[in-house]
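Below sits the subject:

***
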Amino acid sequence: MKPASVVQHGPKATRAARDDVPTRRELLREIDRLEKRVRDQARGEAPPEPVLAFLTQYRSEAQAASTVEDRKELARKLQKFEIRFLTQR
């Protein structure tokens, strides 16, 4: 067993070893998941345009994210989005 202080690098690195920073692909998948939930929540009606506009903006940010900090910030925005628009009250 490896000591806890050992950090793995490369393709086999775990999310914990990467400080839970999502990849661009993971961010885009999360945006897709959130969009599906928004559409499902609308129950056949058109989802609110401002809500979809956030997701469109986040998708652009994910595609442009070039640093770990960019991806961390976007992950925080997605968490806040989910709490604000998709948490049952």
